[in-house]
Design goal:
mainly alpha, Recoverin, domain 1, 2 domains, 7 helices, 62% helix, elongated
Length: 150
C-alpha cells in the first residue's frame, strides 16, 4: 500500500500515527482512534470505529499497526478521488452549476459510467436516495455521496 505514497508522505503519516498511538505501543486501538477522530471533528460511533479498524486489520489483532494505518489512508484517499471523478462527470452536464441535472441528463451520464443500465433500477435508486425533486431534477451530489457509502 505504501507504494502509492511518496517517502515524504510516509514520513508525515508516521508522525500522524505516533500522535494517534497515545500509549506508544506501536498500534492504535479503538479508544485511541476514537479520541483522535473526535479531536478532528469526526464523531463516529463505537461500532463505526470498530468497522474502520476491522476493514484494515489484516492480523485480526483488533488494533491498527503502521502498515494497516497506511492502508487505511490510501483507501480513504482513493475514495476521495472516486468522489471527485464522479462529481466531475456530472458537473460537465450541469451548465447552470446548481448541483442538479434533468432526469434524462442523469440517465445519460450514469449509464455511460455503469456496467449495466436499467431505468427502473435507476428510478428506484433515486427514490431510495431522495435525490429526485418535484421538478424531476436529480441532485447528483446526493447520489454520489450515497453510492460511496455503500
Amino acid at each position: 500500500m505504501a507504494n502509492h505514497l511518496t517517502a515524504e508522505q510516509v514520513d508525515h503519516f508516521r508522525e500522524v500515527f505516533s500522535v494517534f498511538d497515545q500509549d506508544g505501543s506501536g498500534s492504535i486501538d479503538a479508544d485511541e482512534l476514537g479520541a483522535c477522530l473526535r479531536a478532528l471533528g469526526q464523531n463516529l460511533t463505537d461500532d463505526e470505529i470498530k468497522d474502520l479498524i476491522t476493514s484494515v486489520d489484516q492480523n485480526n489483532s483488533g488494533t491498527i499497526d503502521f502498515d494497516e494505518f497506511l492502508a487505511l489512508i490510501v483507501s480513504k484517499s482513493e475514495a476521495i478521488n472516486c468522489e471527485e471523478e464522479l462529481l466531475a462527470a456530472f458537473q460537465e452536464f450541469d451548465l447552470a452549476k446548481k448541483g442538479k441535472l434533468s432526469k434524462d441528463q442523469f440517465y445519460y451520464v450514469f449509464c455511460g459510467m455503469a456496467e449495466t443500465c436499467d431505468a427502473q433500477d435507476i428510478d428506484y435508486m433515486l427514490k431510495l436516495f431522495g435525490a429526485l425533486d418535484e421538478n424531476d431534477e436529480v441532485a447528483y451530489p446526493i447520489v454520489v455521496n450515497k453510492l460511496l457509502e455503500i
